[in-house]
Hints:
By secondary structure, this protein is mainly α. It has helices spanning about 1-40, 50-60, 65-80, 85-100, 105-120, 125-140, 145-160, 165-170. α2 (about 50-60) runs parallel beside α4 and α5 (about 105-120) runs parallel beside α7. The longest helix is centred in the N-terminal third of the chain and has 39 residues, at about 1-40.
Amino acid sequence: DLEKLASNMQKVGAVMMGIGIAAIKMRGDVDQEMAKVKTIADTTTVSFEHLRQGVMKTSNDFNLPATQMAEGLYNVISSNVETSESLHVLRDSAILAKTGFTDMANATDILTTIVNSYGYETERTTKLVDQLIITQKLGKATVDELGSSFGKVAGLAATAEVPVEELLAAI
């Protein structure tokens, strides 16, 4: 029937239009988050377009929302991570979010808290992710649960010169 076909085509068209509207909204949300990044990023070391591409690549690689990646990048840079190192920390945060059963906000917070508290170089975040996942595996807490308490003790532990490995083992 031609009427049935026309009715089905209308339904498909409505669905496609809904997908298009959602994509436009998501693009607007990503643009809004990236506008925040632009206010604090040092674009003399890394172009804004490179940061945007890094956010989109990380989002695609880990199947996490691009808005969360853009917000995560803002959180990383605002935590005194150099813009030139920010995409590395963002990627490690995405790995931690996926494997640590947490969200990007918590993943970026715990990594940047450790880096800042202990004065670590950002290259160390990959090792920190491994240590946090091992702690989750051997302990009774997820990374998400660790994150809420870790910020409270990391600064004190670093000041007392307690190695992060011992701190994680104690948790």
